[in-house]
Amino acid sequence: MEASRAFTCRIPVLSGISETLSMKGLVLTYMGKKEEGWDLVKKGVRFDLSSHICWHVYGLLHKSDKNYEEAMKCYNQALKFDKVCTLRIKSSRLSLVAGQYEYLKGRRATTSATTPI
Question: CA-to-CA distance for 109 and 106, rounded, in angstroms?
Fold first, then answer.
C-alpha cells in the first residue's frame, strides 16, 4: 500500500500527460478505486485521442469488466495509431478478446435456446 501511495503522489506533477493519467487510472482501478480509475482513463483518452497507450489501457479496463465488444473497439483504435507494436497487440490482445467475445455470444445463444420462457 505504501508503494501505491508513493506512485500516486508523484503522478499529479505529470498530470498533463495523457498516458500518465491513463496508467494512473489503470493502477487505481486494480487497487479497488474503480470509478476514479475509469475517470482518469477517460480523461487521458480525451487529452490525446491519438495515443495508442491510452486506447490500449481503455481496452484493458473494458476487458476487465467483460465488455469484450468495447474492448475490441479500443484495441482496434490503438492499432490505428501504433505502427511499431502492431503485430504484438494484434496477435495477443485482439485475438484473445475476439475469442472471448465469440465464446460469450455462443454461450448466450445456447442458454437462450435451452431456457424455456
Answer: 5
The matching CATH number, chosen from 3.40.630.30, 3.40.640.10, 1.25.40.10, 3.20.20.70, for 2-114 is 1.25.40.10
- pLDDT reported for residue 65: 92
pLDDT band per the 50, 70, 90 thresholds, residue 43: very high
Residue 48's alpha-carbon distances to 23, 32, 71, 73, 85, in angstroms, are 13, 25, 18, 17, 19
Closest CA to 31 of 73, 64, 1, 71: 1
Burial of 108 per CB tally in 10 Å (0-12, 13-18, 19+): exposed
Q: Does residue 25 contact residue 44 with C-beta atoms inside 8 Å?
A: yes
For the whole prediction, is pTM greater than 0.70? Answer: no
CB 79 within 8 A of CB 92: no
